[in-house]
């Protein structure tokens, strides 16, 4: 598939998706967000891909919605049926809206935040499974400074990641947060030097692709993203059902075999 505003490549079993509007700090357009969804779904469907790295070209990760498009955005656009309707009855409807679909992809998404992540750029990072930041990265919710509100579920996601106090601060003030402060509040998992960011993300992706069962990763990811909607009893019941199924899997047999034989695993995902 040809893309206009992003690049898609593979490094071994890792799909690398790069937002590619460096001259506009990778600000989102309708074209870019449609291409991003297509690229993410493509990686999710590809049996050769076991992890996804999402990053930005140039000095920014994503500066939010392109202001030129924001000026002409019709009021009803945000509620358009094509963005809100469930696409797959096997996926939770909560994770099928315009920007909340990352959790429905059964592979780990690693967000390599190379620079500014503001507004919708921050939203995308929050819906990723891992957030690695360059030491030069900066974060801002930005919405209140544009006369907007906490968009696309960020008021639900952000407190679950950084806690209510930090979320209130970030959302109401829209202040900019540097990488080290983001690390201290738990907004990102790790901070590295800019030149090491992509290699660090790819190394994490290799670990997820080669050292652990892709079947286990997919199930555990689903358990984690389902848990906000479950009671403890429901979470235990789901775990028991998945445990029974995993004990019948090829990856379980391989998990035991490679440990006993003291060799590298050869997981198939089955």
Question: How does this structure look, described?
Answer:
The radius of gyration is 19 Å and the shape is globular. The longest helix is centred in the N-terminal third of the chain and has 16 residues. Helix 5 packs across helix 6 and helix 9 packs antiparallel against helix 10. The chain has 2 domains: 204 residues, 2-enoyl-CoA Hydratase, Chain A, domain 1 (Alpha-Beta Complex), CATH 3.90.226.10; 49 residues, Lyase 2-enoyl-coa Hydratase, Chain  A, domain 2, CATH 1.10.12. The protein is built from 11 helices and 10 strands. The protein is an alpha/beta fold and 270 residues long.
In short:
This protein is an alpha/beta fold and 270 residues long.
Structural topology:
Layout: E1 6-11, E2 14-19, H1 30-45, E3 51-56, E4 60-62, H2 67-71, H3 81-84, E5 109-113, E6 116-118, H4 120-126, E7 130-134, E8 138-140, H5 154-162, H6 164-173, E9 177-178, H7 179-184, E10 190-192, H8 197-210, H9 214-226, H10 232-247, H11 250-261
Parallel strand pairs: 2-3, 3-5, 4-6, 5-7, 6-8, 7-10
Antiparallel strand pairs: 1-2, 8-9
Helix pairs in contact: 5-6, 9-10
Average pLDDT for all residues:
89
Structural class: alpha/beta
DSSP helix fraction: 40-55%
What is the strand arrangement across the widest sheet?
Answer: 1-2-3-5-7-10
Count of alpha/pi helices: 11
Question: What's the alpha carbon Rg, rounded to whole Å?
Answer: 19 Å
* Shape annotation: globular
Q: Judging by the overall fold, what is the CATH architecture of the largest domain?
A: Alpha-Beta Complex
**Superfamily (CATH H level) name of the largest domain:** 2-enoyl-CoA Hydratase, Chain A, domain 1
Largest sheet: 6 strands, mixed
